[in-house]
Structures are given as C-alpha cells and as structure tokens.
HTH hxlR-type domain-containing protein
Amino acid sequence: METAINILVGKWKPVILYHLFENETLRFSELQRSIPMPMPEWGVKHLQHLDELYGEKQISQRD
C-alpha cells in the first residue's frame, strides 16, 4: 500500500504514468512531447523517482 501511495504522490507522476501506459515504450524526449505543457525540472525528478522504483521492471502487464 505504501508503494502505491509513493507512486501516485505528486502532480506529475499520474500524468507520466498515464502516458507510459498509453504508449508502452517512450523515450524521454517523446514523453516530454506527449505532455501538453512543459514539464518543469521537478517533473523530471518525479520521472527519475519512478525509474528508481521500477528500474528495469515492466509495469505494463495489462491482460
């Protein structure tokens, strides 16, 4: 439960996760272009935090 809360805390994390789930694989620059407004530096930090949480794990296990 704590992990789920940590993932969703922050303004940009849900936006980032939405675009990653919709597109499965995105390069960082593609992710930035897919978000309708400029992602500030702290948005980038949220992305880095998500990367630390998941590393190489695949989170798109949609059945």
Observations:
- Residues 2-54 form one domain.
